[in-house]
Design a protein that fits this description.
By secondary structure, this protein is an alpha+beta fold. The strands form two sheets. Strands 1, 2, 5, 6, 7 and 8 form a six-stranded mixed β-sheet that branches. A two-stranded antiparallel ribbon has the order 3-4. The longest helix is centred in the C-terminal third of the chain and has 19 residues, at 260-278. The protein has helices spanning 44-49, 84-87, 102-116, 122-139, 174-190, 222-227, 260-278; strands at 3-6, 52-56, 154-159, 162-167, 201-209, 212-220, 239-244, 255-256. Strand 3 (154-159) and strand 4 form a beta hairpin.
């Protein structure tokens, strides 16, 4: 499977970046220089050295506030409640004639491509995942003011004198994702032009694996961010990334947009996220 981490911000700031080649020890890390120089190489031992942990939550309300009672959702995004089997049929077949309009047909085609190409090479899979997610971002107008959408941008963070680059190219390992989330927070924390410069940071992130969506939220205190300037944080300073849906058996890789029963849950969360960002 492939995945891409997409973090959405109203503004984006690119930190300076320095590359080093290091090899992390398999025992407990004692020196920040044992950390890899790229988030794509982060493993559990690196995440734990930074006191970053994951926690399942079982209600969407623990990540994002509910939508207003009369909030309108674009019904075309439900794709006429097509099942995964319907989406896998050949475009133009009699089943596809049931789709109501071109918007439904467009989304159905993107989903069809993503599902059919899950078994192909990583590079090909990434193309179809990126295309599907770009479609959603455009539909939700996350590429228009007051938002700014830039794909495949570099973020970075520093632990003492160790600089780490977080290029969005990981697969679905959450240790790598935690490094990318930390880099996003530091982008705003350390840039004097950021509206949250030297303030507590809250980061929202979405992981997409094929047609499966997982939502994350994390709070990083000023103290935690400042501790990293001198090295690893003390045991008393921790970060918890909350995850929804939980990585249980059924939703281990997230809610599946190809599942008509999951589709409404994903759309609800995407609309919640947009409303949340508009209030920041």
């Amino acid at each position: 499977m492939n995945s891409c981490l997409f973090s959405i911000f109203k503004r984006k700031f690119i930190p300076s970046k320095v590359f080093y080649k290091t090899k992390a020890s398999q025992s407990k890390l004692k020196d920040p220089n044992q950390l890899p120089s790229s988030a794509s190489n982060f493993k559990k031992i690196h995440r734990e050295a930074l006191n970053i942990h994951y926690k399942n939550v079982y209600s969407a309300n623990e990540i994002l506030n509910p939508l207003p009672e009369n909030f309108k959702i674009n019904n075309d995004l439900f794709v006429s409640n097509f099942t995964k089997e319907d989406l896998l049929t050949f475009p133009g077949s009699s089943i596809w004639q049931k789709l109501a309009n071109d918007e439904e047909r467009s989304l159905a085609k993107y989903l069809n491509d993503a599902i059919l190409n899950e078994q192909l090479s990583k590079k090909i899979r990434e193309t179809f995942t990126d295309t599907l997610v770009n479609y959603f971002f455009a539909e939700f107008k996350l590429n228009k003011y007051p938002f700014t959408l830039r794909l495949q941008s570099d973020f970075g963070f520093s632990i003492s004198d160790k600089d780490i680059i977080a290029k969005s190219k990981t697969e679905y390992g959450e240790s790598q994702i935690s490094a990318e989330i930390l880099a996003c927070a530091f982008t705003n924390f350390r840039n004097i032009e950021s509206p949250t410069f030297k303030m507590d940071q809250t980061v929202y992130a979405i992981r997409v694996i094929g047609t499966r969506f997982t939502f994350y939220k994390v709070f990083l205190s000023i103290d935690y961010c400042e501790f990293l300037e001198n090295g690893f944080p003390p045991k008393t300073s921790t970060v918890t990334i909350i995850r929804f849906p939980p990585n249980d058996k059924i939703t281990f890789y997230g809610y599946n947009y190809a599942d008509k029963n999951h589709r409404c849950l994903i759309l609800d969360l995407l609309y919640r996220l947009k409303e949340c960002l508009l209030k920041i």
